[in-house]
TrEMBL record:
It comes from the Bacteria. One of its GO terms (cellular component) is NADH dehydrogenase complex. InterPro entries: NAD(P)H_OxRDtase_bac/plastid, NADH_UbQ/plastoQ_OxRdtase_su3, NDAH_ubi_oxred_su3_sf. It comes from Atlantibacter subterraneus. Its EC number is 7.1.1.-. Keywords: Cell inner membrane, Cell membrane, Membrane, NAD, Quinone, Translocase, Transmembrane, Transmembrane helix, Transport, Ubiquinone. This is NADH-quinone oxidoreductase subunit A. The gene is nuoA. The keyword Transmembrane applies.
Amino acid sequence: MSMSTSTEVIAHHWAFAIFLIIAIGLCCLMLAGAFFLGGRARGRQKNTPFESGIDSVGTARLRLSAKFYLVAMFFVIFDVEALYLFAWSTSIRESGWVGFVEAAIFILVLLAGLVYLARIGALDWTPARSRRSQINPEPGSHTNRHPQ
């Protein structure tokens, strides 16, 4: 007797199917338990946010500069690249000189990217108008604009 194709697939994957059914059932059971056993109190203070013993003041909607997101992206990029270098360092004996040259090229490309970011001003935190005000004029260049 030969089994049909669908019965054969079910026979091979019965453990996963049982696991999936139990996981979905457990999730539904926990959601139903939270619904039936959860608190029913309603009140004005019940729905206000409360953080570490301090009442909230103001709004949480803050406008942040795009510089924060740029720095976050640079961090992720350079962090992932550091992860690649760590993987390279663990296999340095197997990779030999060819791997060393490849890692050196990789580091040079990273360094070129960092120099480029510094040259275009992507790493400068201060806006251009405050950078201009921080530049001090030379001591002998003061002229009296208001004659007496």
